[in-house]
Here is the input.
Amino acid sequence: MTRLRRASGLWIAGVGSVLLAAASVTATSWPPFLPPASRFAEPVVNDVESAFGAATLTRTVQAEPAPVPLRDYLAFVDAPDLTAAAARHLGLARYEVQMLGPDVYRADDHDGNRGSYRVLVRDGGRRVILSRGSHSGWIIGTIRGRALSMLDFEARDEQTTQTIRAWVRIDNAAAAALARALAPLFGGLMDRKLTEGFRVTARVAEWAREHPAEFCDWLEQEPALAERRADLPAGLPTCTTASAGQPAVSRTP
Here is the structure.
């Protein structure tokens, strides 16, 4: 039973990668913090209404402030494939993120959690993410679901505060009932999983800010990010290599 609780909690907390959380369910099926439903494709609308209007579980978590300015931190939030690669390089995490198209990504944490997600809103310090995911375990098999996550980032001096709210819908009725029944027991575990992505992102952003030469040298030697490099958002160090192992670094204005 202990393993069952842990496996269920890990999927519920991790569906959508890197980054889920939640607030309370409202009576309406369309979130007031999203543009009108008419702006989105029908499959997106269906998933949003399912996750937000009929959530299995909801959660709100306020993570520790990231020790980097808002602009720099958002650059790494908005480049999850690069952030994941840097986290693997630093030994902080094993998960992988692949960019499939504008604001669309595929993620795998190599611990049974995998899925895809898209950014629905990118406005100032707010990001709203819709994700579909699954957790595979030897006890409960494969469970699928979707989640709507709202991430809010705010500047506080040279730090960034971060709050995540998520509405999680589990497709399997039996697993959903189990999750509701056990929610009070693994709430702490869920919170830790929800903030894990924040902690990793903060560590990567701090490394790039405090050791830009190391970051640029690593980026120059990362062939998988060669094409992505030109699309990196403002806030990341702009790296140009004068010679191997001697990167020249300039900050994006």
About this structure: The first strand starts at residue 57 and ends at 66. The helical segments are 2-14, 42-53, 70-77, 80-90, 173-210, 212-220. The two ends are 54 Å apart (CA to CA). The beta strands are 57-66, 96-101, 104-108, 113-123, 126-137, 141-156, 159-170, 237-243, 246-251.
